[in-house]
Every structure is written in structure tokens, then in C-alpha cells.
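Please fill in the sequence for the structure shown.

STRUCTURE ENCODING:
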């Protein structure tokens, strides 16, 4: 199938403003439309849609592209699925060529996981060992049914045989991640389903029953088209209603912690999947937190009260602040997690601990006592520099001053210095790229806004001389399409990567080319890029000792300068 042709037909029939308006509210502002970004949390609109070029761009998160990009990102679907949806909206017939498609069908994967959930639940009913384990952990029958907890037997291929009996083919079964070469992924484990926000099972967590084994205690099912471990929270499907009602979310560390919290009445509890909320995985953590932001901006973190728990709590503050959350921290007694604490002491004692939750300032003072306090304060101020909520930041600075005795003005000056240093380093790293990219960006802007200038620009420049990889790649695609006599913005967007689409969408929406000065701008950029290219060659030849070639390059450079400057 000619995907270029179907894409062009879709874009002729569907307007990007009308499509995006089905998902979010757009308001006209000048030549563009504007809204809060649907892909990240923000208070000031930074999401723009350009109707003349049929592209969108968010200046907050950097996402951008065309009608297909938007649908892929918003609906979390593949390229082929996005085309299928858009073709249907446009009233077009679309039957993708089977050999070009992945054998993985999302709907079929949902079916497999639904069947696997039923299978694991049935296996639990006939396993005394698994039932005794759950009883020992204090999990009652009602909770087992609510969370659809099951059991994977020790045998190698019981699930595989079950799925084959349900008429799933081997390619799909292996694509699910639950089976590999006819061998079950989970064996001799308590199985805990992971749901998406619509309640569909998209993955599993498996808890090993045999404590003496060398195998990992917990494992998650592999990532698939319907499941990304780093983007999901366990228990959010069960908790979302209660999070809204309570106004905050309890974040614990494990599956059993969440399950026991719910059983004891703390039904606003969730847990990250196999990873803590860390600085080291800041962007991944932010994606996890963005799922929570749909329901609340207040987090109660619960940790073990030993040294490791204190350290983990402190490390979690940066991603929490970076994600725009207000946080409090509960430190349980040493060697206790929420599950064990609730079993031993009950819900009233747990509620008592929650009522004594620490503020981030209390946590830092408790973590860095005595002579280490100044070190802790500096670390905390650095963490605070990531907090975008200025009112919350102001409250924490006042609290830090009151509880440490350090003058509030001094703390504010130190925070400003940290922010300045951070900004300076970022600018220092970016300034070279900015200078390099300036001429290249202007030429790309001209090409996108005035396609009739493409041939002239391509004749005058050498694409390989471009220093910015993204622009070099885009110009190569433009040159290729031009040779085929098929250049248009739509065709270009259909042939480049999502990263390159976002780059182009930003250039188009921020384009500030003065039409009266278009020729002058174009020639100035070509001249500067040509001189840069010759300077590189001069440096290279100077090292080789080829005097004749060196003199010739110097002569060419002088001629260029003379012709442009007179």
C-alpha cells in the first residue's frame, strides 16, 4: 500500500485544528490556536496549533508534528493504528498490507492478558501452598478477588497450553511476553495483575513463593505494546476514585504494601513498578508522576525509618518537586514496611503515623543532624531549585529558616546563586550549538516558508557541511524529495522521524522571517556557511603542508569576502 498517498488524502480531508479540538479546548491567538498541553502538566498554555501548515508544537515539553503525530502521542497507538483511525474519520478505505505490519495486535494482547488473569486465578484455587502464602501475608479472600490475585504453577508450559487451547497462535503468545519458546515466563509465583486506567489488565507482577530460592523475589512481565513498566503505577486503577476523594495519594514501595493498605482502608495507595522515584531516572519518574497528576498534586511518601529509608526519602524529593507535587513523608519504624506494620499494629496505629508525617524540611533536618546540617541544607536548596510552585517554595524556605535559625534572606540568596549557576551551565552548554545552528536554522525556515527558494539554496550549499545533525538530516530528505519532484511540507513530515517533526513544528510556529529581507537573509547565511566550510578546509590543509592548495583556498576565501562585502 502507498502510505504516502493515504496520508496525503487524510490530510486533505481532515483539519488538524478540528481534530485536536475533539480532545482539548483550543483558543484562537493571532494566526495560531493555543491551549494547555495534553502531554504534560502546566498552568500556562504553551501548546500551539498552526492551521496554515497543519502542525502543532508545545514549547513546554517539546512535542510537535502533524495530525498523525498528535494521534499517536495522545492515544498511545502505533503509526499504522493512527492512520487507520484517521482514515476512518476521513471516510477512506484503509487496509494495511499484512506483511508490513507487526504481528502484535493490541486488542489480541488484551485478550491474552484477560485469559491469563482468569487462568492464574483458577490455579490459585487449587494451590494450597499459594493460598497459605497469601494467608500468612494477611491477605483475605475479598482482597484476592478485588485485585484478581492468582498463582503460576511450577510447571514450564501450563499457561502456554491453556492459551493454545483458547486458539491463540504462537506468534501472538510469544509477543505477549508471558511465554517464550513454549516456556511460561512466570512459574511458582503469586501473580498480581496490573491494570491501566480503564481497568484492563496490561501486565503482571510475580512474587516468588519459595524464600530460599536464588531467583529474584519480584519480577514484572516484559514491556509490550500495551505495557510500559516505567509509565505505570500499580494500584492506580483501584485508587483513582479514592485519591480524588482524599485529595492526596499514598506512595509505597511494593505490590503487597498497596494491597494491604487497601484492605485496611487506605485505598488511595499506589506503588511504582519495580523502581523507586529517583533522580537517576528523572524523566522516567516524571512520566510516572504525570499519571498521578491527573488526580492530585499532593503525595504522601512512606519509607522504612532506617538509614536506607531516610536516604531513599531524601532522593525522592527532587523528582517529586520536578513533577510539581506537594510532599509529606512518613518514616515507619526500622525494618517495617506498610504491609508488615498494618499486620502487626493495625489501621489505627498506621493512621497515627500518617498524622505525624514530616515536611521535606523536617526530613532534611532529621537526615543531616549536627555538623552535617549545612551540607544537608545546601543539598535541599539545590533540590528546591527544581520546584516550580513558587508559593510552595516560599513556604518551605520560611519553614527552613524558622527550624534551622538561618536568616531567610541568606537562604534566598543561596537559592538564587544555585539557580544562576544551573542556568549558566545550561546556557554555556547550549550557546555553541545555538551559534552553530543559527544560519542553518534560518535557511531551513526559509525553505519551509518559501519552497520556491529550495533549488537556489541546494545549489549554493553542501549539506554535509551542516554541523547540526537534525538539520542535516532534514535537508537531505528535502533534497531527495526535490529530486523526485515530490516535495511538499506534508510529504516531508511523512518521511522524517518524530524528533525531526517536533523540530520543524517549533521552527514554523516561531518563524519570524521578514519577507522583504528574505533574499538578504538567505544570501548572508549561505555566505557564512561557505566561509565556515572553507575555514575548516584551510585548517586541515595547513596541517598537511600542501602549500599550493592552501594558497588556493585562501584566495577563494578572499574572493567570497570581496564579493559579499565589496
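FILLED IN BY: designer on duty
SEQUENCE:
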Amino acid at each position: 500500500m502507498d502510505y504516502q498517498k493515504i496520508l496525503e488524502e487524510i490530510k486533505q480531508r481532515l483539519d488538524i485544528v478540528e481534530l485536536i479540538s475533539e480532545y482539548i479546548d483550543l483558543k484562537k491567538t493571532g494566526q495560531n490556536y493555543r491551549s494547555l498541553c495534553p502531554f504534560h502538566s502546566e498552568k500556562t498554555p504553551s501548546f500551539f496549533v498552526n492551521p496554515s501548515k497543519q502542525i502543532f508544537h508545545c514549547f513546554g515539553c517539546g512535542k510537535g508534528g502533524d495530525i498523525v503525530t498528535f494521534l499517536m502521542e495522545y492515544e498511545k497507538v502505533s503509526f499504522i493504528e493512527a492512520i487507520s483511525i484517521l482514515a476512518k474519520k476521513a471516510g477512506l478505505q484503509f487496509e494495511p498490507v499484512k506483511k508490513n505490519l507487526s504481528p502484535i495486535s493490541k486488542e489480541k494482547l488484551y485478550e491474552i492478558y484477560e485469559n491469563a488473569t482468569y487462568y492464574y486465578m483458577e490455579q490459585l484455587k487449587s494451590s494450597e501452598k499459594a493460598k497459605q502464602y497469601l494467608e500468612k501475608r494477611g491477605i483475605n479472600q475479598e482482597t484476592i478477588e478485588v485485585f484478581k490475585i492468582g498463582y503460576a504453577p511450577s510447571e514450564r508450559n501450563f499457561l502456554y497450553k491453556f492459551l493454545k487451547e483458547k486458539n491463540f497462535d504462537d506468534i501472538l503468545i510469544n509477543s505477549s511476553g508471558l511465554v517464550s519458546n513454549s516456556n511460561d515466563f512466570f512459574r511458582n509465583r503469586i501473580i498480581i495483575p496490573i491494570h491501566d486506567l480503564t481497568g484492563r489488565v496490561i501486565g503482571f507482577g510475580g512474587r516468588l513463593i519459595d524464600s530460599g530460592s536464588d531467583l529474584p523475589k519480584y519480577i514484572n512481565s516484559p514491556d509490550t505494546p500495551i505495557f510500559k513498566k516505567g509509565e505505570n503505577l500499580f494500584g492506580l486503577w483501584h485508587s483513582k476514585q479514592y485519591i480524588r476523594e482524599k485529595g492526596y495519594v499514598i506512595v509505597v514501595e511494593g505490590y503487597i504494601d498497596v494491597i494491604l493498605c487497601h484492605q485496611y482502608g487506605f485505598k488511595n495507595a499506589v506503588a511504582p513498578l519495580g523502581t523507586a522515584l529517583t533522580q537517576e531516572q528523572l524523566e522516567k519518574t516524571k512520566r510516572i508522576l504525570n499519571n498521578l497528576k491527573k488526580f492530585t498534586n499532593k503525595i504522601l511518601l512512606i519509607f522504612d525509618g532506617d538509614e536506607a529509608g531516610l536516604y531513599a526519602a531524601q532522593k525522592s524529593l527532587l523528582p517529586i518537586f520536578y513533577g510539581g507535587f506537594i510532599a509529606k513523608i512518613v518514616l515507619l519504624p526500622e525494618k517495617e514496611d506498610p504491609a508488615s506494620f498494618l499486620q502487626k499494629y493495625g489501621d489505627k496505629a498506621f493512621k497515627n503515623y500518617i498524622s505525624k508525617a514530616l515536611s521535606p524540611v523536617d526530613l532534611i533536618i532529621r537526615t543531616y543532624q549536627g555538623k552535617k546540617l549545612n551540607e544537608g541544607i545546601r543539598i535541599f536548596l539545590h533540590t528546591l531549585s527544581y520546584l516550580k510552585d513558587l508559593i510552595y517554595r516560599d513556604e518551605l524556605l520560611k519553614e527552613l529558616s524558622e527550624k534551622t535559625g538561618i536568616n531567610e534572606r541568606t537562604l534566598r540568596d543561596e537559592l538564587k546563586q544555585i539557580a544562576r549557576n544551573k542556568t549558566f551551565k545550561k546556557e554555556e552548554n547550549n550557546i555553541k550549538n545555538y551559534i552553530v545552528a543559527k544560519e542553518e536554522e534560518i535557511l531551513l525556515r526559509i525553505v519551509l516558508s518559501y519552497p520556491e527558494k529550495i533549488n537556489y539554496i541546494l545549489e549554493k550549499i553542501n549539506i554535509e557541511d551542516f554541523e547540526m545533525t537534525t538539520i542535516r538530516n532534514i535537508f537531505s530528505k528535502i533534497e531527495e524529495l526535490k529530486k523526485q519532484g515530490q516535495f511538499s511540507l506534508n510529504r516531508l513530515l511523512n518521511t522524517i522521524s518524530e524528533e525531526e517533526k517536533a523540530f520543524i513544528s517549533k521552527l514554523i510556529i516561531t518563524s519570524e522571517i521578514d519577507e522583504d529581507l528574505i533574499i538578504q537573509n538567505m544570501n548572508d547565511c549561505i555566505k557564512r556557511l561557505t566561509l565556515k566550510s572553507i575555514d575548516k578546509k584551510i585548517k586541515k590543509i595547513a596541517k598537511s603542508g600542501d602549500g599550493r592548495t592552501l594558497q588556493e583556498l585562501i584566495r577563494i576565501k578572499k574572493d567570497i569576502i570581496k564579493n559579499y562585502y565589496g
